[in-house]
Amino acid sequence: MSEEEAQLPCKDRQEDKTDRVRQLPCGVWRSTHPDRKYVGLDVGCNAGDLTFVLHDFLENALSADQPKEICLLGVDLDPILIERARERNPRPDRIIFECLDFLAEDRNRTLDEHLRRFEKSRFDIVFCFSVTMWIHLNHGDDGLVEFLRKACSIANMIVIEPQLWKCYRNASRRLRRSKGEDFPLLKTLKFTGDTAAHIERILTEFCNFRRVTVTRDNEWKRRLLIYART
């Protein structure tokens, strides 16, 4: 989480975790190694509220085929939020939290070590709920492409919840009110308007992923993009 984001309300994660999981379909989750544990990554996990619910969802969704142990890694840039997630973790044997800057050069060490524990080369699923806007605002168009390429490089399947363009405007307005300045890269962005369409194009053209499904809008008018490796 960036310094700018820390100044803004974070109700994204706190108030609607049940609604978000309710959007997820039950029949699309798959493992490349059915005999091994199902390993997932939650990028921008905040204090872990949604991570906990995602773990329970996957347990229920995958048990329809065969019982499978679900292991999730939640990562966030904010060490205070990670400490809070660890303190409140109801399943420390199945859910792990690490402080990690996903765009940093040393991120591979943490992620690779986690994958090696489960004899995996990639995560079965990577979740990116309400993080792409912050990447986009703080790192620009190129940063958004880099983030998605890195996420897809370690994923067999990815779930992305893009924020609407009006959320960008709201974030800009709140930052200007609180700090008297705007996101420096905001006016340079070319991926404006339909952010979901831009992300879908990046996933197909830059990451070689295919669409599995796109959910209906939730009450916040957001949809989930679910893509998989071709």
Automatic annotation (TrEMBL):
<comment type="similarity">
    <text>Belongs to the methyltransferase superfamily.</text>
</comment>
<keyword id="KW-0489">Methyltransferase</keyword>
<dbReference type="Pfam" id="PF06859">
    <property type="entry name" value="Bin3"/>
</dbReference>
<dbReference type="GO" id="GO:0008171">
    <property type="term" value="F:O-methyltransferase activity"/>
</dbReference>
<keyword id="KW-0808">Transferase</keyword>
<dbReference type="InterPro" id="IPR024160">
    <property type="entry name" value="BIN3_SAM-bd_dom"/>
</dbReference>
<dbReference type="InterPro" id="IPR010675">
    <property type="entry name" value="Bin3_C"/>
</dbReference>
<protein>
    <recommendedName>
        <fullName>RNA methyltransferase</fullName>
        <ecNumber>2.1.1.-</ecNumber>
    </recommendedName>
</protein>
<dbReference type="GO" id="GO:0005737">
    <property type="term" value="C:cytoplasm"/>
</dbReference>
<dbReference type="GO" id="GO:2000632">
    <property type="term" value="P:negative regulation of pre-miRNA processing"/>
</dbReference>
<dbReference type="InterPro" id="IPR039772">
    <property type="entry name" value="Bin3-like"/>
</dbReference>
<dbReference type="GO" id="GO:0032259">
    <property type="term" value="P:methylation"/>
</dbReference>
<keyword id="KW-0949">S-adenosyl-L-methionine</keyword>
<dbReference type="InterPro" id="IPR029063">
    <property type="entry name" value="SAM-dependent_MTases_sf"/>
</dbReference>
<dbReference type="GO" id="GO:0008173">
    <property type="term" value="F:RNA methyltransferase activity"/>
</dbReference>
<feature type="domain" description="Bin3-type SAM">
    <location>
        <begin position="18"/>
        <end position="230"/>
    </location>
</feature>
